[in-house]
């Protein structure tokens, strides 16, 4: 007989951003080091670079790639990554645009 380890609420929140990450977690999990930047630089456009960075850092934070709705990300996360990538207007390249 299988044993359920997660409550229904925990299962629903699994692999998603349950809330905006606090500043210490944002700085830890969404920091781009030199290796990250080298990988990101291989993407052709800022749109793709931001999307790649978002997926990579989301895996670090929630343990999975963005699932059903890859645009379901707290806006401060997008802004934090865009700032590190030198993208001035994240709205043009991030979830508020036509997709990541």
Radius of gyration based on Cα positions? 15 Å
Mean pLDDT: 84
First-residue to last-residue Cα separation: 41 Å
Number of strands: 0
Which band does the percent of strand residues land in?
under 5%
- Structural class by SSE content: mainly alpha
Binned, the helix content reads 40-55%
Give the oligomeric state of the chains in this entry, treating copies of one chain as homo and distinct chains as hetero. single chain
Number of domains: 1
Q: Residue ranges: pLDDT <50 for 5 or more in a row? A: none
Task: Please summarize the sheet with the most strands.
Answer: none
What is the molecular shape?
elongated
> Helix count?
6
- Give the SSE order as H and E letters: HHHHHH
Q: Could you explain how this protein is built, in words?
A:
- There is one protein chain.
- This protein has 100 residues and is an all-alpha fold.
- It has one domain (22-93).
- Helices cover 53% and strands 0% of the residues.
- It is built from 6 helices and no strands.
- α4 crosses α5.
- The radius of gyration is 15 Å and the shape is elongated.
- The mean pLDDT is 84.
Keywords:
53% helix, mainly alpha, elongated
Brief description of this entry?
The chain has 100 residues and is mostly helical. The chain contains six helices and no strands.
């Amino acid at each position: 007989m299988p044993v359920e380890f997660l409550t229904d609420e925990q299962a629903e929140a699994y692999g998603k951003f349950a809330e905006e990450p606090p500043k210490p977690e944002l700085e830890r999990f969404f920091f781009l080091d030199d290796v990250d930047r080298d990988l990101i630089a291989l993407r052709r456009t800022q749109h793709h670079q931001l999307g790649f960075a978002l997926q990579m850092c989301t895996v670090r934070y929630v343990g999975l790639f963005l699932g059903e709705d890859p645009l379901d990300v707290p806006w401060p996360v997008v802004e934090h990554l865009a700032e590190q990538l030198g993208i001035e207007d994240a709205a043009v390249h991030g979830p508020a645009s036509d997709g990541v």
